[in-house]
Design goal:
The protein has 244 residues and is an all-alpha fold. It has helices spanning 5-27, 32-61, 70-93, 101-119, 121-133, 140-159, 176-205, 213-236. It has a domain at 4-133 and 206-240. The protein is 75% helix and 0% strand. InterPro entries: AdipoR/HlyIII-related. One of its GO terms (cellular component) is membrane.
Length: 244
């Protein structure tokens, strides 16, 4: 089904980012260099997930009145650019950890918050229409749940709760990074369910032609190639990173 290509791209990124995160946590103990490189790949996978979301949103989530608009045509190319910027900024943030830890944290948070906010512009507009005019779309509630989980994920990542309130009591169970991952995966689950409903509805209405397999795969390939180039450059620059 050619209509399913954006969904397949999105599903691929949904598999990649938890796998990359698991590998980063598993192999980062091998050495300091391995730790940095593992997390470079982790950040790149999260950036690819934002592109997968953008591809699915462009095909299935966009409001009907925005379809084939200038913004709709620029949406995926901008998402590709955001993927590269996100990977670059998040990887660079590791070079700031020793001398500027707060700036490093802020840069890393911005690297993932900005692509999410950009990807969600059509979704936020649909929320606005639902509040202003009312709606009966079955996917909206799921989108709300996904949005709540996304904001919880960001808040927990930035605040380091609950361990900052009781240091030493959440080292094994209940650490903010564990809660961060749980909220992230729950958000992806709700997002997937919502996208499936929107996809079925959009397919039945036949509002616009779906992007071709070439368009979908080329966006993924370009982003992946540029992200790998960023990872390679940052990995070669590791000898110049300040060490604690």
């Amino acid at each position: 089904d050619p209509h399913a290509w954006p969904l397949l791209a999105y599903l691929l990124t949904c598999c990649i980012y938890p796998l990359a995160s698991s590998c980063a946590h598993t192999f980062s103990t091998m050495s300091t260099r391995a730790r940095h490189i593992c997390y470079f790949f982790d950040y790149a996978a999260l950036s690819m997930y934002s592109l997968g979301s953008a591809l699915a949103y462009s095909a299935y989530i966009f409001p009907e009145e925005w379809i084939d608009s200038t913004f709709h045509h620029c949406y995926v190319p901008m998402a590709v650019l955001n993927t590269v910027l996100s990977t670059s900024l998040s990887c660079y943030s590791r070079f700031l950890e020793v001398e500027h830890p707060r700036l490093s944290k802020a840069s890393r948070t911005l690297a993932f918050v900005y692509p999410y906010l950009f990807d969600s512009i059509p979704l936020f507009y649909r929320f606005y229409l639902c509040m202003a005019e009312g709606c009966s779309e079955g996917s909206i509630l799921l989108h709300y749940k996904h949005t709540v989980c996304a904001f919880l994920t960001c808040f927990i990542f930035a605040s380091h709760l609950p361990e900052r309130l009781a240091p030493g009591h959440f080292d094994y169970i209940g650490h903010s990074h564990q809660v961060f991952h749980v909220c992230g995966i729950l958000g992806t689950h709700f997002q997937l369910e919502a996208i499936m409903l929107d996809m079925a509805e959009r397919h039945s209405l036949a509002l616009s032609l779906p992007p071709s397999s070439l368009q979908t795969l080329s966006s993924m390939a370009i982003s992946m190639a540029l992200s790998l180039a960023v990872i390679t450059l940052c990995s070669l620059s590791l000898p110049f990173m300040p060490e604690p």
